[in-house]
Amino acid sequence: MKNYKITVNGKTYDVIVEEAGAAPAAATAAPAQPQAPAASASAGAVTVKSPMPGTILDIKVSVGSAVKKGDVLCVLEAMKMENDICATQDGTVDAILVNKGDAVEVNAELIALK
Hints:
CATH class: Mainly Beta
Oligomer: single chain
Order of helices and strands: EEHEEEEEEEEE
CATH architecture: Beta Barrel
Number of helices: 1
Largest sheet: 5 strands, antiparallel
Radius of gyration: 13 Å
Helix content: under 10%
């Protein structure tokens, strides 16, 4: 597994690339996601952000849920496709910052993990 930083239209994305056949099916279904630490009072907190504009179709976790890196947190519909938004690290869901049906822009904060 290798980590790369890719800049597209002036926005930087952290991308994890795995060898074919070595990745679990759930990890390969997710698009590249921007990852950045949250501006939060909680030490070690991370906010998972939207990689593209779209609509929140489903939220798969609740506050206090334990998640592992790669677990699906929510489903984002963009361009008539459903995109799984996955946890960027192991942790606990600290806050859900969107609601089902919300329209979000690129880099909108979706889920806070601690």
